[in-house]
Structures are given as structure tokens and as C-alpha cells.
Amino acid sequence: MSQYGLLIDYEYCTNCHSCEVACEEAHDFPPKARGIRVFEDGPFEYGDSQWNWNYIPTPSNRCDLCAQRVTNHQQPACVHHCLAQVMKFGRIDDLVEDFKAKPRQVLWMPN
Question: Which domains does the chain have, with CATH numbers?
């Protein structure tokens, strides 16, 4: 799985936590022992009464990119269940091209 990763476009994450719940369910993790967690960045003011508040889905060291699901030709649970469709799974070489095209994204690769 080392040639695969997740591209996360956090500009549109709505903080619904569906990625966290899907991960817990797919792996039967105990509560709060997730392979992915949504972190908050903000709120902060960056202009004249303009505010920013980001939600950033961040995989943890428990994430194996749902190796069993991928072996069965399925998307990782977090990608499949993301309501805002801000996550993309694929080969790192392919994801790098998308990563370069747009700011406010995170490219995550497992160890």
C-alpha cells in the first residue's frame, strides 16, 4: 500500500465526522481510537470582518488505507463515506498532480 495515499481538500470539509465514524466501523476500533480524525483550525479573523474556520481530516498512525477494502476493489471507508467528497484515494504519483493544482489540500502517505 506504500504507493497509495489520500488527497484531502480541506477547503470544503464540513466537519460532519462521517470519515471518523466510517473508520471506526470498518476497523471495529474502540470509540475515539480512530484511523482518521477531523481537526479544527480557527476560527480566526483575516480581514475586515472576514473569518476563516477550517476542518482538516487527518489520518493517524492507525490508518492502513483500508487495505482489506482496497484489495476488494473498494475505496477506503473514509473516502467512500465522505459526505462533502473532499477525499480522493489513489496512486501517489497521480495524486501529486492534483495536489499541485490547488491550494488548501493535504497529501497523506502512510509510513
Answer: 4-108 (3.30.70.20)
